[in-house]
Amino acid sequence: MSIVLDGKSLTIEQLKAIARDRETVEVASDCWDKIGSCRAMLQKKIDAREIMYGVNTGIGEFSEVVLTDEQMLNYQRYLVYSHCAGIGDPLPEEVVRAAITGRINVHCKGHSGQRPVITERLVDLLNKQVTPLVFDKGSVGACGDLSPMSQIAIVLLGEGEAFFEGERLPGGEALERAGIEPIQFKARDGLACINGSNVLTALAGLILYDTERWIKTAEIAAGMTLECLKANMNPYDRRLHEHRGFGGAVASAQNILKITQDSEILQLKEKKVQDAYSMRSTPQVIGAARDAMKYARSQVEIELNGLGDNPIFLWEDETVLTGANFQGTPVSLPMEMVGTAISMVAVLSERRSNRLFHPALNVGLPPFLAQKPGMMSGLMLSQYTQGMLCAETRILSHPAANQSIPAAGDQEDFVSMGMNTSLKTKQILRNGCGVVGIELIAGAQALDYRLPLQPGTGTKAAYEVVRKHVDRLEEDRPTQNDNNAMAAAVAGHEVLEAVEQAVGPLEA
Fold first, then answer.
1. All residues at 6 or more sequence positions from 97 whose CB lies less than 8 Å from its CB, including other chains
2. Max alpha carbon distance in the chain (Å)?
3. pLDDT tens figures, 133-190
4. C-beta of residue 2 within 8 angstroms of C-beta of residue 24
5. Residue with more model confidence, 325 or 178
6. Alpha-carbon span 273 to 296, nearest angstrom
7. Is residue 67 over pLDDT 90?
8. Around Cβ 371, how many Cβ atoms within 10 Å?
9. What domains appear along the chain, each with residue ranges and CATH number?
10. 3-state DSSP call for residue 307?
11. 69: exposed, middle or buried (C-beta count within 10 Å: 0-12, 13-18, 19+)?
12. Cβ distance 415 to 141 under 8 Å?
């Protein structure tokens, strides 16, 4: 069944379903009425020769240039041409599909002024699986993601490039194969396709979807390590966290207890009075990341359902308002926090891994979990890899949201750099998958040394996923394939799904 877009109820889960799972979409029927009413009002003002930004004027520094009737006919096409100025690598198709979804949802509010056929064609792109080629670099995240959105819009004209059935094709050929008629833009149509922060928000939404699941996987890895190190589990008592009051910490502690439930290892009496911070403060650290994620999700979903456009046309009282609703800062700032949170949780994962490797800290496990320490190095070099990934996440956690570089002759003199934020946060998450994947490999290796004592139900399910991809390290071998396989398993939520199947859903 199609997902109905209505301009007010799009969720991150629905965005993921459309973008990644290729669910079809439709526009709510009442939204077509609003789109039609808005366009009728706009046409009335055009016929009356009322001056309106981006309709019969230039944009940016050229906003004071008034266009003639003849110029207005070609202006929207030239606007899209000139703004197709990207560089770099093609964005994943799922990101482009998510951006198109977000733009359709803006149109559904009925205040963008485009002709209904524009929205119809964007729906066609999604439902008939034509994905414009969009390069990943070129947006400063204000006045919208103008360059990448223009690379979407140009395909509606039958130009540019697009992916269809696995092939990269000229835009016109992709439309023809899919049975989509190209169109010509009229007044306002082009700007109504490009003037919003839809690409950076699309990428942010998909990152949040994956990060929420990565955080749970980090809790699974933590639980496994705690078992291997015979941890004192008093710091995970729900009451401890409820008395402080942070919901994220309560949820994290509960998840780790659920994962490790019925562990024979943790029932041993040989425990320290207090373990190291990396072992006993995991709920506080991961919990803080959870709380940050809730704020970021709220901001992204507000933007997905907001009127990110300029100008906006209030057809109800025939008002045109110009402003800066394209500004990406409301999304980029919380996503900076998400990147820092991922980096922080990854560093904590590396520190727990260190305790598994370190002969003075690992509670009787062999150094670096090697079968024959000295002649063999075990997982020593995997910790190097974790260290490199953590260092890069720290570098990438340097904020982009305060890195404005003025553009357009200083008319656009503060921009969000939100696309930079989303791109680097994606890389931070990718690194985080590698760090947690290596902790899981180390945890599985350590569990083998704890036999015949059995781990908790959730931990055992995670162990079995690790062993599906990575054999026990009996003697030294190249481990890069192991590391990549587990990073992919973490990124694909495979560990989380196995654990939740074994113990039930973890706290969100």
1. 18, 19, 20, 22, 126, 131
2. 86
3. 999 999 998 888 999 999 999 999 999 999 999 999 999 999 999 999 999 999 999 9
4. yes
5. 178
6. 37
7. no
8. 15
9. 3-196 (1.10.275.10), 204-305+338-503 (1.20.200.10)
10. coil
11. exposed
12. yes
CA 291/CA 479 separation, integer angstroms: 35
Length of the chain measured in residues = 508
β-pairing verdict for 161-164 and 135-137: unpaired
Section 376-402 average pLDDT: 95
CB of 393 within 8 A of CB of 431? yes
321: helix, coil or strand? strand
Range with lowest mean pLDDT among 42-56, 307-321, 322-336:
42-56
CB-based contacts of 284, cutoff 8 Å, min separation 6: 241, 246, 249
186 φ, ψ (degrees, to nearest 5): -115, -175
Q: What is the DSSP string of 224-277?
A: HHHHHTT---GGG-HHHHHHHT-HHHHHHHHHHHHHTTT-SSTT-S---SS--H
Helix (H, G, I), strand (E, B) or coil at 67: coil
Strand partners, 168: 163
3-state class (DSSP) for residue 148 = helix
Structure-block tokens of residue 297: 């999700």
